[in-house]
Write a structure and sequence with these properties.
This protein has 14 helices and 22 strands. The chain is globular. It binds FE2/S2 (inorganic) cluster and fe (ii) ion.
Length: 437
């Protein structure tokens, strides 16, 4: 009997050396198990502290399909609660963000402090002696199991027994450090709106696309070709348009992407690049360099800007692009439905040109007007549809199966066109999904 026809499944059997069973992307039962054993047991990215700048500021989001809110308490601490009234369960905040002195549920008016404590219920005498209502802990907003932040990036877990956040982030911490160090004032803040789309594909297909360096030269051919023609026809001394600088490396060739490389570390985390990336050749912005050197000195500035981690994946919920001040967040809705968000950061103390560059990249690559992102969206759709077929039960992850370098600090590296990141993510996936307790 094939795994496809078994009524019971073992998630461990679906991940094999160099391949995974298609059910990991298509089976609603597997998806539910992922929510329970992976997404609700590990750290998930909630948002950045700058999204709740003042006491009473809140940001509402969905983690593992559950409504939550990040809230800044009057003492300045950042809390994360389930967005669910302790009375009859209504969501307490419905706007994505805002600021309140107290939280008042719109249904029966139960009112909470910004630390979640229930302050008031109308007609409280009706609750006298019943162990429920103001003064009782279970009548307050329920916090998530753990909340912690690293360099302003707030993570939460529904599982109180997760490892320490810094330990769990491991070598990806250097990416967060670099994201913040790129600010001449050492401060970054979320700015502008969010690019948010619902894709008709499994969340892992979206996440894998970020590290799939065998696809840009093919999937984005229709963007690369006209850029090449444009570049060829430019007068010799003409300034190269930024769009050309940004799109051209997508067609950089397999050797170029191999040279960029992948490094995998920790529980499913990874980063692409290190000393080289598709963003390496962006022109310098002299006022920015000057501002950085004023703060850090020339040598440290060079060191910070030479970190070329092109995409860092903090498995399973986010990816971070330092050079372009961008975070992408993944929010699974169903086995074949995923929200993908792109948030942009402003580097405090940096000239506006840096933010303009980030916004331009997002427009060019991630927005509905993108000439490249739409290709990826079509690929997500085609993969999800193709996997439903009976063409095969298995999805290949064989590329460079044995071409792996063990690094001294416990991470492993491979050529940039390797499938190592997918294998590493599924090794973590298997550990989470086979751990019952
Ligand atoms: S459901 Fe919130 S006050 Fe009743
Ligand atoms: Fe792409």
């Amino acid at each position: 009997m094939s795994a496809d026809t078994q009524s019971r499944f073992s998630p461990g059997d679906l991940v094999q050396p160099g391949r995974v069973h298609k059910r990991v992307y298509t089976d609603p039962e597997i998806f539910e198990l992922e929510m329970e054993r992976l997404w609700r047991r590990t750290w998930l990215y909630v948002g950045h502290e700058s999204q709740v700048p003042l006491p009473g500021s809140y940001f509402a989001a969905t983690l593992a399909r559950q409504p939550v809110m990040m809230l800044r308490h009057s003492d300045g601490s950042v809390r994360v609660f389930y967005n669910r009234c302790a009375h009859k369960g209504a969501m307490v905040v419905c706007d994505e963000s805002g600021r309140v002195e107290r939280l008042r549920c719109a249904y029966h008016g139960w009112t909470y402090a910004t630390d979640g404590t229930l302050l008031h219920t109308p007609q409280p005498e009706g609750y006298a002696g019943c162990g429920f209502g103001a003064g009782h802990r279970e009548s307050s907003l329920r916090p998530l199991g753990r909340v912690a932040s690293y360099r302003g990036f707030v993570f939460a877990s529904m599982n109180p027994d997760v490892p320490d956040l810094q330990e769990w982030l491991g070598q990806t911490r250097a990416t967060f450090d670099n994201a913040v160090d790129r600010s001449p004032e050492g401060v970054i803040e979320v700015t502008g709106g969010v690019l948010r789309y619902v894709h008709d594909a499994n969340w892992k297909i979206l996440l894998e696309n970020v590290s799939d360096n065998m696809h840009p030269m093919v999937t984005h051919q229709s963007a690369i070709q006209p850029v090449r023609v444009l570049r060829r026809d430019l007068p010799r001394d003409a300034e190269i348009p930024l769009a050309v600088t940004m799109i051209e490396p997508f067609g950089g060739g397999y050797d170029f992407f191999d040279q960029i490389g992948h490094t995998v570390c920790g529980e499913g985390h990874s980063y692409t690049g290190g000393s080289l990336s598709i963003h390496s050749e962006y022109p310098e912005v002299p006022e920015y360099l000057a501002a950085m050197e004023r703060r850090h000195g020339a040598e440290r500035t060079r060191e910070i800007l030479s970190v070329q981690r092109h995409n860092t994946i903090v498995y399973p919920s986010m990816s971070l692009k330092c050079a372009l001040q961008t975070v992408r967040v993944y929010r699974p809705l169903a086995v074949d439905r995923t929200v993908q968000e792109t948030w942009t950061f402003r580097l405090k103390g940096a000239p506006g040109a840096l933010l303009e560059r980030a916004a331009f990249y997002n427009h060019l690559i991630f927005s509905p007007a993108s000439i490249a992102g739409n290709d990826d969206w079509e690929a997500y759709h085609r993969i999800q549809q193709g996997l439903v077929s009976q063409g095969s039960d298995w999805v290949s992850q064989h590329r460079h199966l044995d071409t792996v370098t063990e690094n001294s600090e416990g991470s492993r590296s491979a050529p940039g066109t390797s499938d190592i990141v997918f294998r590493h993510e599924f090794a973590a996936w298997k550990r989470y999904l086979t751990a019952e307790a």
